Fold:
Amino acid sequence: MWRRWAPIRQVKLNLLRFIRLRGTPDEVAKGMALGIFIGMTPTFGMQMVIAVFFAFLLRENKLAAVLGVWVTNPVTAPFIYALEYETGRLLLGMPRIGLPTTFDFDALQHLSSSVLIPLCAGSLLYGVICAGIAYAVTLRAIPSVRAWRVPRWPRPMRRS
Structure:
């Protein structure tokens, strides 16, 4: 029965795609680290395009970079960006902001700079740390993962 569940099948297919990435383990690990670094930055909605662009410029694995960007998906992004904002705010010694009482241009401009500056500082810190960890883990994992033999899904018996 569990073989019919689409999410389990999708996880298995994505694992197979990752195993079959072409390139040396170093190239795949660099692409993954690049994608995770870009995924940690507050470039909402443009992360995949930026990752492919920089992977193309740096001649790294583009698919691994796109896979790494998904570290910030709709489920994890609020937690990651909140942590990055709080860390950046503490590093810069800035007070926690509150919502303005009036929503005019000046209030929104102050609000945006009070959020974006600490968010960028925190994202650079976490991006460098997570990219380094991702590079080391991926570099060591690729050879052993490529040695795995993933069995095929059993095919249903056809009646003649």
